[in-house]
Amino acid sequence: MNTSTRVPTDRPIGDIEPVFEFRDDMPTGVTVADNGRIFINFPRWGGEVPFTVAEIRDRKIVPYPDATINKFDPKRPSETLGSVQSVVVDPVNRLWILDTAAPSFSTPVPDGAKLVAVDLATDKVVKTIVLAPTSVLNTTYINDVRFDLRKGKAGLAYITDSSVSGPGAIIVVDLDSGESWRKLNGHASTSADPAFVPVVEGETLAIRETGKPPVPFAVASDGIALSADGATLYYCSLSSRHLFSVPTALLLDRSVSEADVAKAVIDLGEKGASDGLEADDKGRIYAGDYERNSIRQRQTDGEWKTIAHDPRILWPDTLSVAGDGYLYFTANQLHRQPQFHEGRDLREKPYSLFRVKIDAGPVLLK
């Protein structure tokens, strides 16, 4: 009779380092400045969220840039923060805040969806760009953003629209004029894959209400990354396993027809089901894999390599390459929220911020 109590188990891959534990609100975005300052955001998806952007300072969460701007005022939607989905430090030491102005995935508050730049040297807001209603539709949920400061007078931003009820798209923003426009609006590459059936922690992920049939979790374009030379934009829908790319030149030229942009889209094949994407200065792409509790790295030859696999990686959300040679990422248990479990909240605090060594730096386009 075999009396051994040890049985084979799933082997972890890589060495993820815990950076911070969140014991209150659920984080999505993370970004790290050159001097090591770490910024986090907490979207207002339900419950009390006292501040939607914060800095991790002295092992505490501190409202950023201050508590006042984090108190949303519907009468001043362009001046206060409604529900922030992403934060990104740019190459000239500004923190850009992407405010959906759509708490609980509601219709965006008019004049509320915006990009806000904070100078990290002074911790003061230095620019606010309210996105036009032609770019932010009633169904829009702006999700993540990347910057190329070499283009135009002040640079350009690329934003994903991860709508759950309307067309997905890439939104391009001129940081000088504040003008913005949609590209690949409703294209298959920016839309949820209708054949996609996600399985997370062994269960099919779907919107589940008691007494009703499950509804597919269909989320449009979400993850986004820029190549090291800025010539290629990579993106993916949350409800898909495919990675797509498109030349940025075609996104910037407003005279190029949607049909011609669509012809240039490349399906780079399966990478796993991802929320966030990121790129490094060595030409590699990073993707979370929320079905497999993993972080994957696309080599320059197109092959995918798993660099982190661990049962603690419960829904890797935002990825951020920092100047210290690490890839930072949040693990926020998004799939355990009540809407996926007939009203039962299965999340277990704390939520986590991890990092994994990659020996590369961020893409710096300035």
UniProtKB/TrEMBL annotation:
Coiled coil: none annotated. Keywords: Secreted. Its main location: secreted. The keyword Cell membrane does not apply. The keyword Coiled coil does not apply. GO terms for cellular component: extracellular region. This is Gluconolaconase. It is found in: Secreted.
